[in-house]
Amino acid sequence: MLNKIKGGLFGLAIGDALGAPTEFLKPSQIEYKFGGKVTEMIGGGMFNWKPGETTDDTAMSLCVARGILNNKENPIEEIGNEFLNWFHSRPKDIGINTRLALKYYKMHDSWKEAALSAHDSLDGKSAGNGSLMRTLPIPLLIPDLEKAQHISMEQSSLTHYDVLAANYCSVYTEAITNILNGNEFKSVIEQSFSQLNLPKEELINPSVPSDGFVLHTFVWALHLCYTSKDFEEVVVRAANVGDDTDTIGAIAGGLYGTYYGYESLPIRYINALLNKSELEDISNQIYHFRNTQI
Hints:
66% of the residues lie in helices and 0% in strands. With 294 residues, the chain is mostly helical. Helix 1 (2-19) packs parallel to helix 13. The protein is globular and about 50 Å long. 54% of the residues are buried.
């Protein structure tokens, strides 16, 4: 189980760090700017990331993990506190929906009001992928599916008012739980995809853009997991798909890494991560916490 937990968390971080420099670029721009496909953690990009540096995807996932680890009786309140502490640390990049919600929380002192204000400021477009990207630690920590799904949806609503975002957090949580329960990988992906109400062809050859809309991001993550031969292919394809490359890589990397485990991850990617020791520590804490929940 520790192999799968570490595989998921490190898989998320690797997909995130590999895709960070190419975020917001089109595939043709990536090829032009980097002289071909990005296959290593080279750093750079819009926020001048260091090689091996992870973004808000990994940072907020760790916030979720710490929130549950530090307060298993009332994790949502603690997760919110972790988000605020991270926000006050002035990170390089925060997704617009999350940034607005955290800003409005300081005004309203209410997560529901903060999420609604962010929703209104975005003209009702609050179904972004910012809550899906941080969901992975929940099913890693909590084996009970119903409880894990409830927490995943609740943590989504802290910042994302649209219930669509919460629903896909729940679907992702179910997928990770099914993986940890020993289900076959492609059947897990197919089951998750079946809940999106899209033609099967979208899983094989997506026509939707690889942008930050939660449905589109999830389609691309499932597609990459379903059609790639190994972990490296998953995250390299994600880094070069264009637009929201880091989040697609994080979600797909988390899925693939959880199933195939830490030992399946390329060692050069693991060693390149700047927060490797923190990921090791949190993975071990998750493993021991999970054992107390069974």
